[in-house]
From TrEMBL:
InterPro entries: P-loop_NTPase. Gene3D superfamilies: P-loop containing nucleotide triphosphate hydrolases. It comes from Gekko japonicus (Schlegel's Japanese gecko). It comes from the Eukaryota. This is IQ motif and ankyrin repeat domain-containing protein LOC642574 homolog.
Amino acid sequence: MSLARLQLLEQLQGEARAEFQGLKCSVQELDDVLFKDVGGKIHSDGRWPLVIDPSGQAAIFLRYRDTNYLNTVNPSDMSVETIRLALLGAIRYGKPLVFDMMEVNMFDTVKKQLERLEPGLAEALLGRTILANERYLSLLRPTDGPEYADTEFQAARTEKFKLFVITKQHHPPEDLLQTLLPIQVVLRRSSRKRGCRRGPVSQRLPSAF
């Protein structure tokens, strides 16, 4: 009996590790979920979204919206200056900055490049403190032009800044799932209810500027 209980406990622990808490939504619901945050789930969680979508449809959706999109496997997109301008522009104009990691976990590389740009920047960005006390103004350079003068950064726009990270990986690393809010994109033809549903996200996902 003791051995049976131990085996059952190990089985339950294994099942618990096989799923994580996050949100689910369809591609059609991404506008409401990511941009409008209907229901305030992203705001209440406090973390930036990690969009998990092996199909790649979410990346296409975000790439052709009004976002500053960076492909993390593209060396030119990952240059320090490109990241600086993309981040600064996203804050200045109040739109999302998107890091698309494709099938590769490039999160450490993203953080290292942010640290090369400015020490402490990765933590400030992920912790949302980059918007506090106009912290972002430290990213300005004299050559940026008049549209990036400090007087051009208006709260009505900067408060709309967002950060999205996309992955095609079926099983993102645990540290990534803890740092960001997992949002699993589920492919389906129609949806009766709009918005996300919070609950366990199975590791088995549909395949399919």
